[in-house]
Every structure is written in C-alpha cells, then in structure tokens.
Amino acid sequence: MSLKNRHEWNWQPTLPIKLSPILDWPPNFLLFFKWLASYWLHISSIIIEVLLAIFIFYLFHPSAEEMKNFSFSWIAQLWIRNCILITLVAGSLHFWFYYLKGQSKKLKFEKKFIDEKVKKFTFNNQLFDNIFWTIISGVTIWTIFESFYFWAASNDIVPIMFWYDNPFWYGIFFILIPIWSSAHFYIIHRLLHFTFLYKTVHNLHHRNISPGPWSGISMHPIEHILYFSTVVIHFVIPSSPIHVLFHFYQQGLNPAFSHSGFDSIVIKDKKRLKAGDFFHQLHHRYFNCNYGTIEMPWDRFFGTFNDGTKK
Ligand SMILES: [Zn+2]
Ligand SMILES: [Zn+2]
After folding, report:
1. Residue 98 gets which letter from DSSP?
2. How far is the CA of 27 from the centre of ligand 1 (A)?
3. What is the pLDDT of residue 311?
4. How far is CA 123 from the centre of its chain?
5. Which of the four pLDDT bands, split at 50, 70 and 90, describes residue 5?
C-alpha cells in the first residue's frame, strides 16, 4: 500500500476540526451557546447519559440506609448494573456497526473494520481483549469509586445538593461536568504518554489503532484509576447523586460512542445519532496529538492540536 493510501481515510468530517469556543478571546457568547446547544438541545450521547442517570437513580439504586455500611450485596448490585449498562451501550453499537454492518462503511473513519485476530491483543482477538479489560478492570474500578462515593454520601461525609437547594447551579453543573472531565483527561492523558507510563500502562489502550465501541474504556487498571479519579471532585463540590451518576456515565459509557469508529449512526440514509469523534480517532492513529477532547481547547494552547489537516 502506498504511503498516500495508508494515510487516507474512508470518511472524514469537514476540516479543520473545531474546538469548543469556551476560552475564545474576545468571548463570543453566541458561538458558545450554539456549541452547547449542539449537545444539549438534541438527542445526543450526553442527553442519553443524563436520562440514564435519572432512570437508574429512581429505579435501580440501593437506599442510603443500605449503603451506610460496605456490604457485598449492594456493591455487587452496582457492579452488575454497570456491566449491564456498558454492555447495552457498547454492545449495541458493536452489534450495529461491526456485527450487522448495519450501515456498511457509511461515515466510517478508518477503511478497515476492527482487527479480529491479531497477536498483540489479549486472547489474540481485539473484541475479546477490549471486553475483558472493560469489564474486569474498567467496570470494577468504576464501581469501587462509585461505592466509595455513595458510602460517603450515605454517611453525610460529602456535600450533597438537591435541585431545590440551588436550581441554577444544579442545572449548570451538568454542563460543567463534561468540561471538567475534559480538563482532567488532558492532564492524565499527557502523563500517560511519558515513555515509562506509555510502555507499561497506556500502550494497552493504544493497541487499538482502529478502535471500536468496546475499545472506549479498554485500559490498564492504573489508567482506569487515573481516569475515574475525575469524580473525586464530588467529594468537595456539592453535588446530587444524579450529577455523580451522570459523571460516571460520561466516563464509563461515552467512550463507547467516541471510539465507535463511525461519525454517526445512519439508518435509512438518515443520521440518527452522533457517535464517533474524529478528534480522538486522530490520536489513535498518530499518538502524539489531540490528548484532550474537543470540550476544552487545551491541545491548541499546548501546541498538540491536529485539526485533521496534518499528517
Ligand atoms: Zn482512546
Ligand atoms: Zn493516548
């Protein structure tokens, strides 16, 4: 294959990729509002995660009384709940994009599908490798953080806020969580690219040159600890349990969309839901660019931004 062909994509969005105008100077409030509206005023992965947080909190959440003491039963309940959620999200996306090949290569970034049998993966298989690290390490560390938080909340150790305490802040906090998560991710991700940590830890995630939905949180346990530590903010900033569940779903479920390898779900020639993220897809191909996410322009500030036009 020629060098030129190797660098070509099956499909790419309109370039250059745009980053959030949140820190643009002078401020452009209209542009920033439009940016937020593209996430919050449409059916998007973010809206699905907020709805899931509400649904889970009211229907499938142990009582505060039960969570006052650590016990196997409620922690196992959280672990199983998280396994079901990730399987529903990553499993459905994988089923549609890669098993059914429901939209063939329409809006697919890479030319090839995921690597089925390659030696670098655990079990010599990308899908089995990704499911293994997601469930055994990812969901377990996610559940440990979640259990600590809900144990602390049930014992009034962390500041709790309900919507009637401060409706304005309650609403704004949902918008701030992905922005905070993006800033946190940039810092830990830069750290993970230092040679020693890259070779021993982060390399596991980067086995996926052409990622799929299950690659999202297919990471080394040390990376999972760093990655989910973003939620520690709720130990100091007043939050509601729904904020916290949403934050966990941002961390645990959103990567299944952003690593799906496709820009959007297309059914009957119509885009139904935004899925993949070309910005992060570039990181999986070229490694040394786009360490953050498009929600915060850190990559532009630190000179690591590839807007899709550079090789
Ligand atoms: Zn990734
Ligand atoms: Zn990386």
Report:
1. I
2. 30
3. 66
4. 24
5. low
